[in-house]
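seq:
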Amino acid sequence: QLLREFLSWFSPARQQRLGWTIDQSITQVGGYLYSRLLLTAINGLGFFGVMVAVGVPVGLAIPLAIFGGFVSEFIPTIGTYIGGAIPIALTLAIQGLVPALIVLGYVLVYQQIENYWLSPKISAKTMELNAAVAFGSALAGGALFGPMGAFMALPVAALISAFIKNYRHGHDVVYRSAYAEDDSSPPSAETETEGS
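struct:
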């Protein structure tokens, strides 16, 4: 009802565009949260498996895995360190140095796999966002605006991408480059004069 009331202030043509924009915003943010939840589940299962394998009791491994997975995925940049530090510290206290180093190894390896492969692939599926764009936007958002920028970079990039697809009007390319493969010689002055 709020949306209908808001849209009633605008002409029918504007209503279509604004309605589409709002729908896309909801879709892209929802897709982003869904992708984060998937990554939380994957990371949490990995944490759980590694901690149980090194001897951490199951009753303790479950909450640590949930904490590690959730914090790593939903708190950008520093979440990885916080999400990994507590399970590593408790593994060190309970099982000793070698098991803690194994958990640390998991955190380091998993982060590389997630950053370069898992996250772009999942984001591409859940948000209809090119994997390279997803990876680049996360890096740019973090570099420009810090943790919050990294968190918001993917839904913003997906929304911009959707805008470009919807509002960009393509045209046939009629220009033929003088240096194209099928015609390597530059156009002569006569040809240019005749063409103009």
